[in-house]
Design a protein that fits this description.
Blueprint (H helix, E strand, L loop, with lengths): L1 H20 L12 H22 L6 H4 L1 H18 L10 H15 L26 H24 L4 H24 L4 H15 L5 H19 L3 E2 L4 E6 L5 E5 L2 E6 L7 H9 L26
Antiparallel strand pairs: 1-2, 2-3, 3-4
Helix pairs in contact: 2-4, 2-6, 2-7, 2-8, 4-6, 5-6, 5-9, 8-9
Length: 305
């Protein structure tokens, strides 16, 4: 009899702990169905991860060569966020503030390539103002990790409200939808304002009604900063491309702050560029095979020199 009573006390206590740990349902959220929220949070996490991998290296040149650093930071942040879901009380800055901080750090540490003359050799351009600090790498790693903690914390809490198999199904569907959406964005060469706009809508849908106004204001500031950064740039499916007018004529092609490519009339280039025209005088070439160019332009991208 005493053992039965003792066992019942343990079950009641365990049930009480579970109830305390589970997030309290709130009528203040826009979407109350936990399955749909799992799908949207999974979409947002994967979508934001791809944004980080694609957007940050376009401005912070070091990360063009260390893109795995952003992937590792994303995975670490997701794991830490899910671990914090076990704790009922855990204060952390909300995602909109962390995203705004990340954008600010990118703005402060972005690299501006400035080449006006075709005589400049980019990889020997050692002007004092053009130097970059490697400190930006650990800073961005920490901030990207922190950005994923609030998103994945809510994801971890939602996983405990739904049966595991059902939760995993909606998780996979949301993740695949995020990847497919970003793939479509890349295919149509849409600018970052569209990327962050979709992310903003997702965050607002998942937000609490009581804090929707400050959340929207912070996200609007982030969108404005992203819009300013993307001015005068063309976004191919792979890179941020900027055309810098060269002297005396033509363009330097800046691809993710790497300016070793140019579109210059052959008359203004080095002598070996004119060799083909000297061998075949008076002829023009309408079909050219370029090997090792390393840059892909969509079919509708055309520059007339």
């Amino acid at each position: 009899m005493s053992n039965h009573k003792f066992g019942s006390e343990i079950e009641v206590r365990d049930e009480h702990i579970k109830q305390e740990e589970l997030p309290v349902p709130s009528e203040h959220v826009f979407i109350t169905n936990p399955r749909i929220r799992i799908l949207l949070v999974s979409f947002a996490i994967l979508f934001f991860e791809l944004i980080c991998i694609r957007w940050i290296p376009a401005y912070v040149r070091y990360l063009s060569y260390f893109t795995n650093l952003l992937l590792l930071a994303s995975i670490l942040g997701i794991g830490l966020g899910i671990l914090t879901a076990r704790r009922k009380r855990f204060w952390f800055p909300p995602f909109p503030l962390m995203a705004l901080l990340l954008i600010y750090i990118v703005i402060v540490n972005r690299y501006d390539l400035r080449i006006q003359s075709i005589q400049v050799l980019y990889f020997e351009n050692n002007a004092p103002g053009d130097q970059e600090s490697f400190i930006v790498l650990p800073i961005i790693f920490v901030v990207v990790t922190a950005c994923f903690i609030p998103l994945s914390r809510s994801f971890g809490q939602l996983l405990r409200e739904v049966q595991p198999l059902t939760a995993y199904t909606f998780d996979i569907v949301g993740s695949l939808a995020g990847i497919a959406t970003f793939s479509a964005i890349a295919y149509f060469a849409l600018p970052p304002l569209v990327w962050f706009g979709i992310l903003t809508l997702l965050v607002l849908l998942l937000s609490d009604r009581r804090s929707i106004i400050p959340t929207a204001l912070v996200l609007l500031v982030s969108l404005a900063a992203v819009w300013v950064l993307q001015l005068n740039a063309y976004w191919s499916p792979y890179y941020r491309i900027t055309l810098i007018p060269a002297v005396p004529r033509g363009y330097i092609v800046d691809v993710n702050n790497v300016g070793h490519q140019s579109m210059i009339p052959w008359q203004d280039k080095e002598p070996f560029y004119r060799r083909m025209y000297e061998v075949f005088p008076g002829q023009s070439f309408h079909h050219v095979l370029v090997l090792g160019a390393g840059l892909t332009f969509p079919h509708n991208f055309q520059v007339n020199l």
